[in-house]
Structure formats: structure tokens, C-alpha cells
Amino acid sequence: MNNGKMKGMTLALLMMMAAFAGCLGGDDATDDAGDDVSGMDASDAGYTYASDVDNHRSLMKDLCDMKAAASSDGGYDFATAKDIYMNGKNAEKSDGTFRTLHGFASAEGKKHPYDAYYDMTGSVDAHIMAAMDGTGDFAGTSDTVRYQGIAKLTVNLGMVAYTIHELNSAIAKADAGNIDNDTGAPHNWDEGWAFFHGPDEDYGCSPAKVMEKRAGDFATTNADGVANTFAATEAAMVAGLAALQAGDATGYNAAADTVVKNLVITYSQAVLKYTYKMDSNTTAEKYQAEGYAFWKAIEALVADHTDACYNNQTHVMAWIGAGNASNCDAFIWTQHNGQGDYMCYNTDLHIVYQVATNETQCDGFASMYPNSGMPGYYADYGAGEMNKILDLTDASQLGASYDVGPWLSGAWAHYGITSADIGTLQ
Description:
Elements: H1 11-16, E1 43-44, E2 47-48, H2 54-57, H3 59-70, H4 78-87, H5 101-106, H6 114-118, H7 123-133, H8 143-175, H9 185-196, H10 207-218, H11 228-246, H12 249-276, H13 284-302, E3 307-309, E4 318-321, E5 331-336, E6 339-346, H14 359-362, E7 377-378, H15 381-389, H16 405-415, H17 419-422
Antiparallel strand pairs: 1-2, 3-4, 3-7, 5-6
């Protein structure tokens, strides 16, 4: 797969990709009249739907059934899991056909960043199908690894991509003035919650449940024991729906940004956890597979912010976020306003390289030494290193514990994520 850069691919730019107001056909077309398949409650968790998205909500049960089939208890029945994924099981429409997870994942023109990042139409589906079939990134891997891929990629990469697509679709419709509850922006926003949370009874198979688990791992819950990420996401979704209905662009754009920020927090926590646990003597490959799947949920959102500059004195990278080669020349040994201790300061990015403790070290960025044999600037370096250690076909990566926090630090800065937001692995 091509991990090419997607410079500046932010949520705001994704919104502008919508040249027309409607969904792009296929399985998420909004002609859902009569598709109420279950008489579900009007709300899931603290979010009350403005339109009928019962059929979309039923896809969460497909995920639960797929996981059950593909698990060890299900006899690693990958064929049944694939059949549910491809042909559907629970989201029957009024015409007798089924809405399918495959239909969403493989569709063209989705308003999410994954296809652009991987330079591949239906990139979400390609990742999932590799786990289903034991090909590509899953070639020659064990049943345990394939199960983790199927279970984690569909729930996380799949549903996160669908959620982002629906939020962007809602924004595009609202920007075009279509705020009708049943056919306009609120309907797509409702679909976003259906994909993120789903029916309360199937919550355990949702990305929302992942927020709960990771918050428990990193002690990032509120006084009521609710994941900070979930509380923020739920509040943003509720506020965003109201903003869409009121035509408040500032409000619904801010809500969408908050959702994406908290998705990045959650999956950063997941990647931190499972790469750290890869030193296990018995379950390292399982943890690597989990780390891989969680990483794929956010790779397209964060990779552009993992650039680095190599320092040939300290041999430690300086993480510069979404930078360029000239930024690596901008480190100088200086004081703050001519006073206090000297520091290795970047005059372009206004960051301090704390590893350097003297001028010689600060001058050690390789871009200043064209004959050093080392390039100074590494685009998407953190993402590249992440993909190395999460290479499911490379057993040499197992048996080590990795601290990948620095690799993600530029992305956290971009999204306004603090160390307190990430928390500490318990």
C-alpha cells in the first residue's frame, strides 16, 4: 500500500470535497423511508436521533455477529464472518436487500481521508479483506492475528471512517442549506452516531466502547467514571445536531473537530498500549495485531504530522509535526530574548529541541552537513517507524516494548491534545 503524504488533509479540507449535497449513492444513500427494521428506541446513550436511521444502527449487530464467528470460540470461522461482511445479515431494507459493511468500505468518493492517504479507492475494504482472506498485510499470519484484524479493523477503521464520512456529508449539506431532519444534514449526522455508537444493546461492538476501554487503561475518566473522550464526543454530537438544525456553521464545524480530536486521543492510547505490550513472551503477535488495527484507524489522520529532523550529534530525532526540509536548518543555540539559559531553538517552528545540551549538539542536524550521508529531513518518519514495528509478517519486531509517544507528539500538537488528555498507562 502507498503511504504517500496527504499534506494539509484536515477535516476542514475534507468538507470542501463535497461538490454536491447528497450522499454518494451505494449503501449510504439516504432514501431510507420504510427501512425501520426494528422499532428501536429514539435514543442511544445521550444522543436522540432526529431521523430514522434504524437500518444503519443495525449494522452494529453485523459487527457483533462477525466477531463471534471469527473468534476462537466460533472456531475461527472466517468464511461466515466474510459472508456477513459481504452480504449483510441484520440491516434488511424495505426492498429485501441488505445494507452491508462491505458496501460502505469499498465505495468510491467517501468524505474521509483514507482513500487519499493510501492512494487507493476502497482502502478501508482492502485492509479488512486482507484480514478476511489472509493476504496482503496478513499473508501467512496465524488465526489469532487474522481474528484481531477482522474484529478490530471492522469496528475501528471501518466504523471510524464511516463516522467521519457522515459528519462531513452533514456539513456539506448544511453548508448548501439542506437542514431537513429526514433528508438533510441532521440525517447524516444521525448516521454518524449510528456508526460510532449504534444501539445501546450492541454498544460493546462499537468504537464508543473502545473509548471506554482505553480511558480505563489510561485513567482518563471523569468523576462519574465515564471516559473523557466519550463524554466530549457525545456532547459534541448533541451540540452539533442542534447547530445543524439551526444553520450554525461555527457550531457544527467545531463539533466535528471535537469528535475527530477525541478519536485521535482514543486510538493513540490504543497504539501506545499495544506497542508497549509487544514484549510479551506469549501473546506478542496478538498485541502487534491489535496495535496494527488501532493504528490504521488514525494513520491517515496523523501521519502527516510525524515528520522529523535527524541530529548527527545526539542521534535522536527532533519531531517537527507537519514540516519541511528547511525547518531542519532552523535550529540555533540561543537564549530567550537574550536572557536565561541557552537552548536549541527552532526559529521556524518555535519549538525547543531539549535533547541538545550544547551548541555542538544543536548544530548537529544533518541537513547542515550535506556530506554526512544522512538526510536531515524525514517526511512521515513516525508513521514509517510505526508501520515497521507493526509489520505483521516480521516476527523480529516481537519481543520488544516500544515507546511510540514521541512519534505521535506532532499530531497531538496539531489536534490540541495534551499529555493530560492521553493520560498514563496503568
